């Protein structure tokens, strides 16, 4: 049994003002460094005119799999940046909230619009911490078990049975119907090997699984 961990239930944000500066904290689930970076880029694109967009995330350094099951022993990539704020005043306090709350597989970005009054390093640290904390509260923290993803590509003749198998297993998946049918599957790590075997069985080994 792989270890459960704490993460956010979904995306959320929280906003407030301090001495005229507006702070908006955003959080999102992220299972990989790539997903975390994509979320950071999305918020930066949403607020290109912001004075600062300060990122922090805690995600697995590599993707979970049956050989790297995640849980308590997984290597975490912890990243933060001050994005132009005074050193140590913003990125580190934002990341510290994620560490103190013991949440992972999560990305946070705090957007700041400067309001004309300098807050000092202590004031900034309090504001950036508060933005992440309030966004986490808004999102809600849940217990999760490590998941992995794989893609099963099959001919149209096999697609109905594979789709039925995935639906009956109750796993998340997306299907793309092109020259062949590709199912992108998200499954608990401990259930992955058995599910792949069942797909191979159902297609007499014709499924291409990556």
TrEMBL record:
Record domain UPF0029: where: 153-206
Pfam family, any one: Impact_N
Gene3D superfamilies, alphabetized: 3.30.70.240, Impact, N-terminal domain
Listed GO CC annotations: cytoplasm
Top-level lineage group: Archaea
Residue ranges occupied by any Impact N-terminal domain in the UniProt entry: 20-136
Lineage of the organism: Archaea, Methanobacteriati, Methanobacteriota, Stenosarchaea group, Halobacteria
Region described as Disordered: spans on this chain: 58-93
Protein name, per record: YigZ family protein
GO biological process assignments: regulation of translational initiation
């Amino acid at each position: 049994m792989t270890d459960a961990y704490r993460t956010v239930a979904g995306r959320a944000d929280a906003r407030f003002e301090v001495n005229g500066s507006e702070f908006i904290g955003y959080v999102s689930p992220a299972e990989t460094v790539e997903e975390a970076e994509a979320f950071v880029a999305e918020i930066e694109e949403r607020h290109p005119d912001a004075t600062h967009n300060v990122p922090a995330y805690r995600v697995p350094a590599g993707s979970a799999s049956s050989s790297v099951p995640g849980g308590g022993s997984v290597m975490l990539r912890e990243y933060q940046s001050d994005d132009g704020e005074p050193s140590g005043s913003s990125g580190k306090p934002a990341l510290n909230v994620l560490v103190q709350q013991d949440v992972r597989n999560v990305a946070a970005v705090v957007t700041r619009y400067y309001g004309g009054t300098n807050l000092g390093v202590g004031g900034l640290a309090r504001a950036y911490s508060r933005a992440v904390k309030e966004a986490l509260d808004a999102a809600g923290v849940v217990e999760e078990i490590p998941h992995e993803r794989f893609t099963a590509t099959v001919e149209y003749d096999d697609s109905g049975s594979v789709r039925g198998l995935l639906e009956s297993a109750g796993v998340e998946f997306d299907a793309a119907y092109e020259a062949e049918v590709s199912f992108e599957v998200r499954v608990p790590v401990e259930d992955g090997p058995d599910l792949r075997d069942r797909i191979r069985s159902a297609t007499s080994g014709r499924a291409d699984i990556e």
